Amino acid sequence: MSPTFRVQGPEAGRLSLFGPLTAQAPGRIWKALLARRDLRGTLTLDLGGLSALDLNGAAQLLWLRETLGGRGLAVSFEGLAEAYAPIWRLAENSLGPPTPPPPQPDAISRLGRLATEFLADVAALIAFLGELLPRLAGLALRPWRGRWTLTLRLAQTAAVDALPVTALVAFLVGLILAFQSAMFMKLFGVDIFVADLVGLSVVRELGTLLTAIVLTGRSGSAFSAELATMKTNQEIDAFLTMGLSPTRDLALPRVLALTAATPLLTVLADFAGLLGGDVVMIALGHPAAAFWTELSQHLDASDVSTGLFKAIVFGFTVAAVGCQRGLAAGSGPEAVGQAATRGVVSNIVILAALDSLFAVVFYVLDW
Amino acid sequence: MSWTGDPPDGAWPLEVEDLTVAYPGGPALLERVALRAAPGEILGLLGPSGCGKSTLLRHLVGLERPRRGRIALFGRDLWADEGAQMDLLRRRFGMMYQGGALFGDLTLLENVVFPLREFTDLPLKAAEAAARLKLSLVGLAGFEHSQPASLSGGMRKRAAIARALALEPKLLFLDEPSAGLDPVTSAGLDQLIVTLARNLSLAFVMVTHELGSIMTAVDRAVLFDRELRGVAAEGSPAFLASELAGPQAAAFFRRAKLDRGAQSRLKAENGHF
To answer: Model confidence over A298-315: pLDDT tens digits?
Structure first.
């Protein structure tokens, strides 16, 4: 067992140090020394008993001298063996005063910066939309110029691969919704209307919204991360210097893929949600067909079409926001994570805002 | 009794015997490798790209388990005990990765303080003083609160050396310290390595291609060869660069000289590089 570092004192203004003084020195010795508020005048540290001293040890002595010096206690060293003189000199010459940390902005400047960043964000999104829509129009005029293979592949990843998770989430939400409302409505003997409640909620609102949120998490974040990685790898710069448009060649296929995939997924999510509701109705003792018969009397084509219309808008939004956040990423590895997070957060906020807007517009239009 | 203290007297910081270097599941890249680094010595590992130098380094620091052979650090077999003893051994050497591998969400000071906070019970301010000392040694005084992303490549490598020095190891592994640096910055880094080796009797084991680094910093070099799957030549850089060291060494140094010649001609023609 190697000897451990220890001290003796302080007595009569002297503290004797023994053993190896390295980073492994017990910190409690220094904490105990700093807790001694009764020390006055000068403190001499006798280093004659040290059996080893490295830069970490020297740094501790220098730190002690500075800290105690700040309290008006002058610290001096004596008896350091000649063998440790080079280390001591190296440490003493190298260690300057600490650099003050950079000033932190106060609350008002932080608020101002946040507000400016938010406005710049919104402006960037609008500008991106302004770039994307003409590209979309251009593609409509010359469809043979589109990157259809990539678009199809992306649509497959976004839609087909998302089928199980979307269906599961929608099924469970339909089930929970039906179960919670049935408990209450059964008291009044109107539990057959659970079918209408679940049907309208799922087809008009939840099916679409759930699909959009699942796609935000699965595809929107992936788009942000992919494009941000391309940005950090300077691939986006390569596109630009070759005179190509990242919006047309990278963002447009993703936007088209998701805009096409979302309504299809929504139809499936609607069906899964309704199935969840039917399972509860069957459990409550109704025949399986009762749910669908009741539904067919109150659910009409406009309910389904509003849901699908929203799905198209949501799909477009999720992909466009995801791509914009990726293309606007900073540099460095952390930029990829930041871009993905920003994409998902922006998307969820925008989806909620859009859905509220649609609710008002559909009400006014009586759609 | 568990080992906590110093190595037995006279133990080499690094001693490798009969080592086979291979990718996991792949063919052997190098066979029968024997290496030894003395305290204060700068050992260069040279060789053409793809000959297995970097994989050898991964073996030496314990990231890959060797298929055959023995790696001893400070007289202790690296793979004798994979538990706490290996962790203890790992704290006794430092490693600088090619890109620096600094933790991006920490400032330079926090990067260097990190190992001290994890493995010692020094008061935070004392650990910070030790970390500032290391940063100052590598010429980064005043950059304590900078983020790694805001630094140049050379500064990041210096900061990575400071972090590797945090626990004051007596052995430092460097993976291509000069890669991607301009000649002036690269020369500065070589100077720093020599200063640290001489002043702190630190043993350095560095993988490098750079002829400038080999000639100015390296004390002893080992040249690996892909065809031979092993050591082609070993000795002082001056010996390796001479005609005596064999065809592989001659080819390696001729090519490296050509690179340098081309660089200086370009510089002369354009006035800058």
So the answer is: 888 888 999 999 999 999
pLDDT tens, A90-119?
888 888 888 888 888 899 999 999 999 999
DSSP β-bridge partners for residue B234: B222
Q: Answer yes or no: do A56 and B5 touch at CB < 8 A.
A: no
CATH number assigned to the domain with residue range A6-94, chosen from the 4 options 3.30.750.24, 3.30.450.20, 1.10.3720.10, 3.20.20.220: 3.30.750.24
* Separation between Cα atoms, residue A174 and residue B123, nearest integer Å: 57
User: Is residue B5's pLDDT more than 50?
Assistant: no
Is the Cβ pair A90, B132 closer than 8 Å? no
Tell me which CATH code domain B12-92+172-260 carries.
3.40.50.300
Which residues share a beta bridge with B37?
Answer: B14
Rounded to two decimals, the ipTM of the complex is 0.77
CA-based nearest distance B169→chain A, Å: 10
Find out whether A289 and A173 touch, Cβ atoms under 8 Å.
no
In this structure, the strands spanning B14-22 and B28-37 are: antiparallel
Average pLDDT over residues A145-152: 88
**Average per-residue pLDDT in chain A?**
88
Query: What is residue B4's predicted lDDT score, i.e. its pLDDT?
Result: 39
Q: Report, in angstroms and rounded to the nearest whole number, the Rg of chain B calculated over CA atoms.
A: 19
Nearest by CB to B126, from A2, A30, A99: name it. A30
- Give the SS3 label for residue A130: helix
> Domain residue spans in chain A?
6-94, 131-365
Identify the residue whose tokens are 């972090």. Answer: B163
Q: What letter would DSSP give residue A102? A: P
Higher pLDDT, B6 or B103: B103
What residue segments make up the domains of chain B, in order of their start? Answer: 12-92+172-260, 97-168
pLDDT at B1 over 90: no
For residue A152, pLDDT over 50 is answered with yes
Residue from B9, B116, B133, B144 to probe the interface with A (highest A Cβ count within 10 Å) = B133
How many Å lie between the alpha carbon of B196 and the closest alpha carbon of chain A? 11
- Alpha helix positions (H), B43-152: 53-60, 84-90, 108-119, 124-137
Nearest by CB to residue B133, choosing from A1, A28, A94, is A94
- From A31, A95, A99, residue closest to B129, measured CB to CB: A95
Q: Do A56 and B200 touch (CB under 8 A)?
A: no
